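Tutorial handout. Part one gives the primary structure; part two gives the three-dimensional structure as tokens.
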Amino acid sequence: MGTAPIRYQSEDEDSARWTGFPFRDGDIVISTRSKSGTTWMQMICALLIFREPDLPAPLNELSPWLDWRIRPLEDVVARLDAQQHRRFVKTHTPLDGLPIDARATYIVVARDPRDMYVSLYHQGSNIDREAVRMLLGQTAPARADDEPERPDVRQALLSWIDSDATPQEEMDSIRGVMWHLSDAWQRRHEPNVVLVHYNDLLTDLGSEMRRVAGILDIAVPEQTWPAVVEAATFEHMRHRADRLVPTGVLKDVNDFFRRGRSGGWREILTAEQVAHYEGRVAKLAPPDLLDWLHR
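Part two.
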């Protein structure tokens, strides 16, 4: 028997919801850290599976987030069970927290952690926390001023770099991010584990989509490729945010796709702070992963 999956939990996630998941041949599990290309890879998989730019349903219905406690588990599983197309499921759980099934392909998308955190910081301002609390059945603070004041993005990023929260305590901590990627990196030679770099999607989306299609054994008619690739561009997805982004927990779905580029952290960190970050991650991940991640 293999090792039992590690349980990861947050305020609104629980990886234990994967227990007993009924896999099918060809299932795709998209495993990413927050703001690291999750929706982008969901969209790519949808476009490859349906082979056309117009999806038959909103993306979060086609590719539900299984771990998300806001949606009743039985409803999510029933929706997936009813699907006749090839299934592709979203998760933010690292691979060591998931059942690894030979029938499924696991796609892990990696992004420079500094960009990931800056994007996550800005998304924090767009989350309707009162709506999230209501959906989770939680009580609101007694007074509005009970909500802690957020530091500016530089201070928040520096605090995040120095945080010692474990992956089990906070999956989006620096240790959580580096563990998620390190675990996937160790498995990268397994036949059903695929690593995709966010920057490769930025620099040559078409080639990277063709690579993913080949791994998934999906044939897209050549005449269809231009429209399919165009539909996966950042600008196209931004214009279709109402069909691609979960509703009900964001103040403005259009703000979900903020900038869609890399290197924003360069506007924030000094050279000394960059060196401090590099020293920090050198203790958390192997050198070959760091070379690939930061290239």
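Part three, for discussion. Residues 38-50 form the longest helix (13 residues). The chain has a mean pLDDT of 89.
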